[in-house]
Amino acid sequence: MLEWHLNLKDIPLVTGIHGVSVIPKDTIKCYRKWDSFTGSGVTGGTIVQYARNQGWVPPMINQESGHELDWDDVIEKDEQVIIDKNWIEGREVREPTNWNPVNELITYLEILFDSTENVGYVTKTWLKDEKHLPTQGCWDRTAGKLIQQLNKCDGDIGAVLGDYNKEAGAWIRFNPLDGKGCKNSNVTDFKYALVESDSMPIAEQNTVLRELELPIACLVHSGGKSLHAADKMGDYGTVDARDVSQYKVDLIEENISRTDSINIQARVMDATVFDVDSELKADIVLADVPCSGYGVIGKKPEIKYRVTPQKQEEIVILQRTILDRAAEYVKPGGVLVFSTCTIAREENEENMMWFMNNYPFKLESLDPYLPEELHSESTALGYLQLLPGVHKTDGFFIAKFRRK
Questions:
Q1: Contact indicator for 264, 239 with CB cutoff of 8 Å
Q2: pLDDT: is 151 or 233 the higher one?
Q3: Burial 23-45 (b: 16+ CB within 10 A, else e)
Q4: SS3 of 349, please?
Q5: Calpha distance 180→185 (Å, rounded)
Q6: pTM over the 0.90 mark
Q7: Which helix (H) or strand (E) holds 143?
Q8: Using one digit for the tens of pLDDT, what is the confidence trace for 222-240?
Q9: Dihedral sign (CA 253, 256, 258, 260)
């Protein structure tokens, strides 16, 4: 909320009897005054804007309104960074037992917007290639107006924003608009950004953001590849999705329930530990292994700051351990697909050759599954290295093996 909120650790406390800390009366008055704004249309943004109008300048922020971030933009590290990602104890994200959608939406608007700022949102969608895509949506009402209407809607959000397709969901922009459109040119102040952090577990993301006291709209992780595989298989088999994280497995199970998928199950399992019950049972195994992530360094520039020769060696050993276990699950004549999101030869081509030299597998052409413009000598053999500067995508490696 741009630092307006009170933080007890910054407030001088008076030590009372038995070591009990007593909050000063002025602080209590501040809390009560803030609580009195609830539902009135006055938000944290309103107070921040008032302070700016009086000459206040946020610390460490220049006076420009900002600009939209591109995938390749880097937020430079400065001396006031207070969280070291190498020393993080994950804090589990717990879902509330009772949801109140109206109050949740009001809280979101109060935190992110000044009451006079226009809010962009979308409830209508259209289908393209069986995907729900958002329309341009609406941007004609201010946060204050929406809050007032939500307080009077008696729980019926659709009466205020319009009904939405539950299969598609709804969207809301987190930066204010000028009331004339929904393009980047219509954004009046780039206050917030979408931060992609797939390389860090949800629990660790939660810890960092809570410690930094940043406003969080949502944390996202998914089991998208598993669900996509299940969808493509249709009625021809089942998918056994495995992950070492209970939280990710829970998310996959939620998505399974949401999409009514009946040919997929999710289990918590460590890929480095051999599962005797799965030996020679699988027709196809997809080993999407942990990697250095060099292929997505354009989106995650922090990767280049944590690379060391030792870590590089450790990741190769981990990948080979997983491939060793995965190979034992493939039936004779079955397929193993090995994939990474890196461009490092020691993790890709060298691991591929190591695998073929030590296990009864051979490469098999990828051409039947690829568009013609990707066909090459390597894809005919059975592997593909995608490069950001060549293929207009992130860097990925794929190899297809057939068990002899």
A1: yes
A2: 151
A3: eeeeeeeeeeeeeeeeeebbbbb
A4: helix
A5: 10
A6: no
A7: helix 143-151
A8: 556 666 666 666 666 777 8
A9: negative
